[in-house]
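--- STAGE predict ---
source: upstream dedup step, 1 unique chain passed
mode: sequence only
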Amino acid sequence: MAREAGATAALGGHSERRHVFGETDAGTGRKVAALLAGGPTPGVCVGEKLAERDAGQTLQVVERQLGAVADLGADRLGRVIVAYEPVWAIGTGRNATPADAALVHAAIRRWFAARGVAPGGLRVLYGGSVNLENVASLVAESEIDGVLVGGASLDPATWARLVSVGTN
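--- STAGE serialize ---
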C-alpha cells in the first residue's frame, strides 16, 4: 500500500513503536523482511534510552536491536538503511554530539561488516533532535551518511533550511 502511494522507504523499529506500542525486535525483523520482499526500501531504527546510555550500554542495546535483521543474509542486509536514534534525544532538544554519534555509527558499520555487508554500501543516518543548529556538524562526520528528521520537519520553512544546510 505504501509503495502504491509513492513511498520509496519505510521505517521499522522506530522508538515510538518500540517504547509506546511495544513493538519487539522480532516484530521489527518481520517488518524489515516484508519490506525487502517487495515494499519500499526498509529502514531500521536503533537506539538506547537514557538509563541505558548512563549505564554504558549503548552499543549492547544497538547490537541487540540489530539482531532483529541478523538472519537476512548479506545481500538483503545491504539494502537496509539504519537510523541511529538515541531515544533520550528524541524531542528533548538534546542530541548526541557528532563525535558520539559517529562512534555508534562506526559500531553499526562493524556489525554489518561482520555479516558480509560492504561498509561502503551501507547507509547509516542519525536521528535525535536534528535541528538547524546541529545538522551541519552532524553531516560533516564521515560516519554519518545523513539525518532522520522528526519534529523539525513539520515546519516547511525550517525543513527547507535543514535540507539546504544539510546538503552543503
